[in-house]
User: Fold this.
Amino acid sequence: MKEQLRQAIQIALQQCYTNGTLSSGEMPVEIQLEIPKNPEHGDFASNLAMTMAKVERKAPRQIAEALVAALQGNPLCDKVEIAGPGFINFRLAASCWYRVLDQVMEQGAQYGRSRIGAGTRVQGEFVSANPTGPLHIGHGRGAVVGDAVAAVLQAAGFEVQREYYVNDAGNQVKTLGRSILLRLRELQGQSIEFPEDGYQAGYVRELAAQLRAEKGELAGLDETEAIELCARFGVEKVLDWIAVDLKIFGIEFDQWYSEKSLYDRNLVDAELAKLKEKGLSFEQDQALWLRTTEYGDDKDRVLIKSDGSYTYFASDVAYHMEKFERGFDRVIDVWGADHHGYIPRMKAMLAGLGHPPEDLQVLLIQMVNLLRDGQPVTMGKRSGNFITLREVVDEVGRDACRYFFLMRRCDSQLDFDLELAKQQSSDNPVYYVQYAHARVCSINRNAAAEGVAQPKLDEVDCSKLQLDEELQLVKQLARFPETIIGAAVNHEPHRVVFFLQELAAQFHSYYNRQRVLVEDPATTQARLYLINSVRIVIANALQILGVSAPDKM
RNA sequence: GCGCCAGUAGCUCAGUUGGAUAGAGCAACGGACUUCUAAUCCGUAGGCCGAGGGUUCGAAUCCUUCCUGGCGCGCCA
Assistant:
């Protein structure tokens, strides 16, 4: 709808230039159209006349008058007015608005999708938690946001790949192996001293027991071999847990990318060689450094330590170089906000290689403070006492949990009180939206029971929808496609949540005031047409968020 | 000390990328179920947009200086 109006304005501009009422001949880069807060200002408002004032060297109102004159008689517009310092307010004809319903019905599950991202390949990397323990609640937030950003991008036509980067090569993995081996020895009756920096949590004992059952007592292996075996076993099992937990949470990846495989294929050395070739790295104090200060970082960063081992940064560099070599136009990383200090060095690396730094966009997810009855729950894999994502999902429910994470912008912190989330479960916002969907389905069932047929596209008389609240609902439905686009390009899935909240509120209000199944068949048909459009849009939006749309509650 | 994020109603947060009179949800108070599901609706009340300065036709939004909270600043991951 917005786009149609934009085109009409463009034509009007052209007209003004040819008939001489406007002189500069310059087409504005962008015609801004906004939905005014005050409904008296029409359906759309544009500041075009004001932004053109400088180039045209005319008063805004004068420009506005010329444009309005050119728009006279356009069937799209019911009323075009000049207001304030030079705003142009457009009121669109109701008949135009009601065509939105036809679009929703025709496009069905496709309504809201667009092609603006067509041809752009995007990679989204998220979660990427170390495979040394189960996912906790903070991972959950990153997982849902990453998944929803990917979904919203796909809805806007981008080609998106979801990837989980498995850190299966570093020290943490070795520590896991050592921890499992110690617990195994413990099971075998040996007395052990468990180190401070080992993984203390109960699942390590579980892993040790499983290992014993599957692999035996590891007799005849020396320490290094045993740790290696334990580590590999542990990583494999933990990754299985993670994959299952994520699946239960509604998240699946296109690819699990192993850090170890970078080394196995010699990719790290190969990519580091390229950096050296370009003169971006240098040796100092027996270590290899990347000259990130050249591109805005405040320190140079070590790639290979003086003892010859690689830093995580080394494989991260290789990994990201390799991402672009795979042909992605844009890479999105979802990180915990505590890693924000890594952004400058990653961007510096890209800049050094001649990539615009904007090709890598890092989405920082602020911390989740997990509370129980207002008391903070201590987190940390090593300390042992932590609540897993799985426990939270089992306790709160998948839909509520996902919705909760998506309700706020990801760069503000989030208090997640388990007791509160459970208590609120009956008036949790997610149910509010789902209930709207279920209500439409319920009306459909009643209609069917009374033998009322569902409306057909060409047979509906939308002029039966005379109420203002009906028009408002249609306008909200019309905003769905642009909401998706905004959420996609800004990586802000919470916009979809707020859109849904608003739509559901309008629907519930309408439902309480008006009856859908009424005496007059034509009105009934028109209203069924309207509410089923609402149902479709709610379902489409929830689908993008990974939340179910129940027919019955 | 330096950097990143946040600061909007009692609480939790939106605010269409600089637009017209700052909005929702909880919580509070008052109403609505012989009517398609009351997991709902209607109404009332609630504000120095952290503070000061600047940019312009116009600022919650941009620049700047402070204040407060969180997180970072390793040849850790």
Notes: Residues 223-248 of chain A form the longest helix (26 residues).
